């Protein structure tokens, strides 16, 4: 078990609650957890420890929104996401942590800018060549960023937001997307030494906080209107991008 000060445990507990809330109510909010874990734990260990907690929260998200998933969108994204995951594994093997964070931060800000411009022009990610290009670009970026920093949430949130999903369809599709992706990442993370025994012991302590956050998120999501939901997604995406750029 890592030896940490009480305040460090308190911050990790807050991060664990945020993980639960992000899965059942506000996608993208888990970038706060990414920031806290990276600040307290060694970078590689923080990535593996957070991945396990994300998988725990995925279970609650799937259970809550299993009937609202858009499988057509997930199937369309799958090839590009697998390419992104592969690129992420290769990138992790050669890049240091600082370079990884800054590259992802730039990507996220670019994604936000493009998404907001498209929405202002009244365009949607839908049908035809535009839809295929969007699925390929967002899917590749999402797979890449989730592999290297568990930061795929903001990227894919922008894609689902541009697709104009309802709150439930957004959360259901995101739940299945990240559950499948996070499970796929496990063998790679073990092979890269990201998941360790001390990290698993730390996760065991933090699991109750994840469960509490997930349950609170379910309560909160029922009270979110569409406009507030979309604004929260954008705000947390900007915060996540800023952290990755400046950390």
Q: What topology does this entry show?
A:
Blueprint: H1 6-24, H2 30-40, H3 43-65, H4 71-94, H5 97-120, H6 128-149, H7 152-162, H8 167-191, H9 197-221, H10 226-246
Helix pairs in contact: 1-2, 1-3, 1-9, 2-3, 2-10, 3-8, 3-9, 4-6, 4-8, 5-6, 5-7, 5-10, 6-7, 7-8, 7-10
Distance between the termini: 26 Å
For the largest beta-sheet, the strand count, sense and barrel status come to:
none
Mean pLDDT over all positions = 81
Secondary-structure element order, N to C: HHHHHHHHHH
Q: Provide the domain count.
A: 1
Helix coverage percent: over 70%
Share of residues in strands: under 5%
SS summary, helix count: 10
Radius of gyration: 17 Å
Q: Which class best fits the helix and strand makeup?
A: mainly alpha
Uncertain segments: none
Q: How many β-strands, per DSSP?
A: 0
Sum up the overall morphology in one term: globular
Membrane topology: Multi-pass membrane protein
Keywords: Cell membrane, Membrane, Transmembrane, Transmembrane helix, Transport
Transmembrane segments: 32-61, 73-93, 99-117, 138-162, 174-195, 200-221, 227-246
Main location: membrane
